[in-house]
Design brief:
Uridine Diphospho-n-acetylenolpyruvylglucosamine Reductase, domain 3, four-stranded antiparallel β-sheet, binds flavin-adenine dinucleotide, Enolase-like, domain 1, binds iron/sulfur cluster, globular, 324 residues, Uridine Diphospho-n-acetylenolpyruvylglucosamine Reductase, domain 2
Length: 324
């Protein structure tokens, strides 16, 4: 049986109080819905002495639209995002495909954006990992996926993130240096041990989307073993605009491959043209050529790469359908 390690819970009521606690208490972590962090603590991946709960912070959740820009509080539950008509359809769809209904009620968008990378050799019990001599991401010196002692390729596995990047979202935060904001395309790095480019005492406060263009279309395609609960083996976020049958913007991001979501190049080939069968085939091929799934997740990498082409095609077809 997996036992929870003992820790003390703190319940700050303001962002300032939460950040102060995080800076002052050694061995502390933020916890939002706890749907990822608490299983990870049970697996011995983290051993915090203090958890700073974000669930009592006033004004930490909610969705507002000001001059077309959409601001989603980091503490907004995935269930609320999934059922909101204020957010783009692709983001609502991605949120609706995270885990199971109970996780989406508890889990937050901020927690999804800050989700740790995942790996078959890492998301296991302490005994399981010990039997294998641990690995580079925790307690060990060697990566079982790529045979390296320098690099971890655990996969970025948050479903909402590929769509958020395709939508050109930014995050607002409060860190040890004060308040700040960063475009999400600059948020992640290609290193599975430390995938987020922010000081780890940083508190994410909101996710902000720029105003949607006329003719906006967006969607998310997810490959997983069971169509309930499972993390993605591949995720593709698509966002753009189609006006009178002609593409005016298009962006695509693939994930669950490497530690960093991959912003796909060459999508502008569709701008000024209709998304017809030939263009969809061309873009699906461009996607296939750019993705390199690793053995860090379930599913043969060659099959997952093939599925990137298939899901890209399906996603683009969804955009055409939505524009009609
Ligand atoms: C069985 C199971 C299946 C799952 N399937 C999926 C899936 O299919 N897709 C998917 O994307 N996820 C999945 N998850 C993971 C999880 O449910 C979601 O990613 C969820 O969005 C995490 O949000 P949370 O609020 O629960 O985060 P928490 O678990 O509370 O925190 C996650 C991490 O983010 C940090 N954090 C949280 N909020 C903030 C903040 N505001 N500022 C700074 N740091 C913060 C925490 O310190 C922690 O490191 C699954 C989990 C389980 C247990
Ligand atoms: S990719 Fe390698 S180092 Fe990273 S978690 Fe997996 S086995 Fe460990």
């Amino acid at each position: 049986m997996l036992r929870m390690q003992p820790f003390e819970v703190h319940l700050p009521e303001t962002v300032a109080e939460a950040c102060k606690l995080r800076s002052e208490l050694a061995d502390s972590l933020f916890v939002a819905g706890g749907t990822d962090l608490l299983p990870n603590i049970k697996h011995g991946l983290f051993t915090p002495k203090h958890l700073i709960s974000l669930s009592h912070i006033d004004g930490f959740d909610g969705i507002s639209v000001v001059d077309g820009a959409i601001r989603i509080g980091a503490g907004t539950s995935l269930d609320v995002v999934a059922n909101s008509t204020d957010v783009p359809p692709g983001l609502a769809k991605a949120a609706s495909l995270v885990a199971g209904p109970q996780h989406r009620k508890m889990g937050t968008l901020g927690g999804n954006v800050m989700l740790d990378t995942r790996c078959l050799f890492y998301n296991q019990s302490t005994q399981w990992r010990e039997a294998l001599g641990y690995c580079l991401k925790a307690e060990g010196t060697f990566c079982h996926v790529i045979g390296s002692d320098k690099r971890c390729v655990a996969a970025h596995s948050a479903d909402t993130v590929p769509v958020l990047l395709a939508l050109d979202a930014a995050v607002e935060f409060v860190g040890p240096e004060g308040e700040g904001a960063v475009n999400m395309r600059q948020l992640y790095r290609q290193e599975g041990r430390d995938p987020v480019q922010l000081d780890d005492r940083t508190l994410l406060t909101a996710i902000v989307l720029p105003p949607l263009p006329a003719g906006h279309v967006s969607t998310y395609r997810k490959v997983r073993t069971r169509a309930a609960i499972d993390f993605p083996q591949l995720g593709i976020g698509l966002a753009g605009a189609i006006v009178d049958g002609v593409v005016t913007e298009l962006s695509a991001v693939a994930s669950a491959l490497m530690p960093q979501p991959k912003v796909l190049k060459g999508m502008d080939a569709a701008v000024g043209k209709p998304l017809d069968e030939a263009m969809i085939e061309h873009l699906a091929e461009r996607c296939f050529k750019q993705v390199r799934p690793q053995r860090s997740l379930h599913g043969d990498p060659a099959w997952r790469r093939h599925m990137a082409r298939v899901e890209m095609r399906r996603g683009l077809e969804e955009l055409v359908e939505a524009s009609q």
